[in-house]
């Protein structure tokens, strides 16, 4: 199942323009999709750039800018210490403060659905991870 998901994720990343040598920023907690993203990047000879979910907004601004990634993978939220904590919202704040390569029209943010709660959404930029993988 893991290898099948990695193949589907690689195909999805390729549809979003990821090619050999490109960077994919991964801003995920410890979830299976993090491993799947790593395997998918390997299949495309793309580089995975890890953006730890513990980074603050200013740190994320710097790291996303340095990464040069046009495709980013994040989660809507995560469970820590028995509480639901935002993940995508932090990345959204960093991207709004200029933490990205190129303009927003060049960026894709794939969002892993972890928690049943409302999530901010930027049409044209944000896409659900599971829907992207189901297009194969």
UniProtKB/TrEMBL annotation:
Lineage of this protein's species? Bacteria, Bacillati, Actinomycetota, Actinomycetes, Kitasatosporales
Start and end residues of each AMP-dependent synthetase/ligase domain: 2-86
GO cellular component annotations of the record? cytosol
**Which protein is depicted?**
Acetyl-CoA synthetase
Record's keyword terms, sorted:
Acetylation
InterPro entries named in the record: AMP-dep_synth/lig_dom, ANL_N_sf
Query: Source species, please?
Result: Streptomyces chattanoogensis
Single GO molecular-function term? acetate-CoA ligase activity
Entry keyword annotation includes Acetylation: yes
Q: Which GO terms describe its biological process?
A: acetyl-CoA biosynthetic process
One Pfam family matching this protein: AMP-binding
